[in-house]
Task: structure prediction
Amino acid sequence: MSIEQEFADKLVQYKHIIYKVCFMYADNKDDVNDLYQESVFNIWKSYQSFRGESSFTTWVYRISLNTCISDFRKKKKHDYVPLEQQVDIMEDCERNELLKEMYSLIKRLNKVDRMFILLWLDEKSYDEIAEITGTSRNNVAIKLHRIKEKLKNMIMDNLIEAIRQLKQKKNAVILGHYYQKGEIQDIADYVGDSLALAQWAARTEADIIVMCGVHFMGETAKVLCPDKKVLVPDMAAGCSLADSCPADKFSQFVKEHPGYTVISYVNTTAAVKAVTDVVVTSTNAKQIVESFPKDEKIIFGPDRNLGNYINSVTGRNMLLWNGACHVHEEFSVEKIVEIKQQHPDAVVLAHPECKSTVLKLADVVGSTAALLKYAVTHPEKSYIVATESGILHEMRKQCPQTTFIPAPPNDSTCACNECGYMRLNTLGKLYDCLKNESPEIKVDAEIAEKAVKPIKRMLEISAQLGL
Ligand code: 13P
Ligand code: SF4
Result:
C-alpha cells in the first residue's frame, strides 16, 4: 500500500479528532474548515517521521492543537464568541445536546484550559494529557480540577440566567420553601414557610406559579388559583406526612366521629382537605385551635407530634390521627444532649413535628418561620436547630455572625435531617419545568371546590390574627 493510501485510511479513522480540536478554536464554520485543512496538511507533512511516536492519537492531537494555537496567535483572535454564533456552528457540527451545551461553555475558557478539558472529555488518561501538553501528571490533575470547578460555576450562572429570562418571558413567579436547596432558595421570588407560600400563591398576579417545595404545596396553590398554571420541578416530590394520611381512611375516620370539627395540617392531599373544616400550618395551629370554644370536639390530623404539642399548650384533648414526618421523627434526644454538652450555651430550636421528648428539651418550639424569626431577633446567641437543615441557609444568610448547628439525626451515618422529597428539586429541573411548562399540578374540580373552603378559612383567620 502506498503511503498516500495509508494516510488516507488513517484520516478516515482520525478525522473526528482533528475536526473536534479545530471546532474548539474556530470562530465560525469557515474557520473550522480552514483549520481542519491546515491541520491535515501539517499532519501529512510529518507523517513519515511519525513512525517513532508511541500513540498515533496523541500525535494527531498534538499537531492539530499546535496548528490551531499558532493560527490563533497569528490572527490574535479574541477568546469570546457570542453564544448564538457558537450554537449555530454547533448545530452544523454536533447533534449531541449535552456536548453542545458543554462546548458553548468550553469555548469561553481561555485556550490553554480549553485544550486540557478537551483532552479530558475525550477520555485521555492523565499520563496521555501530560504527554500531549508537555507537562507533568500532577500538573494535569491540578489544572483539570480547577477548570472543572470553573465550568461548574459557569454552568450554574448560565442556568440561573436562563431561569430568570424564562420567568420574565412567561410572567411566572417562583415560590420556594425553606427546606429547598440553597441555590433554589436564592433564585426564588419568595421564600417562606407553608403558610407564607399559600398566602403568596393566593395574591400573586403571575400567570404561572412554580412551587419549589413538595406536591401538597403545589396542590394548595392550584386550589387557591384554579385559573393559573401551577408547576412543580419534580412531580415525585411528595411528603411522608401527607402519605401517612390516605384520604379514604381519613374520611372513614371522620365519618365514624360525627359532631367533631376537623382540623387538618396543610401537609395533606387536597382530598383530605376536602373533608376538613379548617386547615392549619405550624405557624397558626395554636391560634386557630384556640379560636374554637374550649369544649369543641376536634379531630386533628395527620401529625401526631404537632397534635400532641397543640394539645399540651392549649389544654385541649383533640382526637389525633396517627401520622408523622419521617425527617422530624428522626431527631433524637440523646444526640441533641450530646451536642448540647459541646455547646452548653446554644439555644435549642425545634419544629413541632419533632417527637414530644425532643420538644421537651427545646428552648423554642415553632414553625420554620418562627424559628428563623427568633434567631434573627437574637443573633448574639448560638443555635442547635432541630428541623430540616435547609432552613440553616436562610438563617446563616440573615445572621452571618451567628453559629447554627444542625441537630444530628438518630442515625449519624445518614443525611436524615434533609427531606429527600424537598431535595428532589434542582436548578436543572426548575429550568426544564419553566421551559416545558410541565410537570403541572392538576386537582379534580369537585375535590378542589371542597378543599378551597378550609384553606381560605385558614387564610382569613390568619389575616385577622395578623399572621
Ligand atoms: P412549615 O413550613 O409550616 O414550618 O412546615 C414544615 C414542613 O414540614 C413543610 O413540609
Ligand atoms: Fe413532608 Fe417532612 Fe418533608 Fe416536610 S419535611 S415535606 S413534613 S416529609
Observations:
- Residues 193-194, 267, 281-283, 325, 353, 367-368 surround 1,3-dihydroxyacetonephosphate (ligand 1) (CB under 6 Å).
- Confidence is low (pLDDT under 50) at residues 80-84.
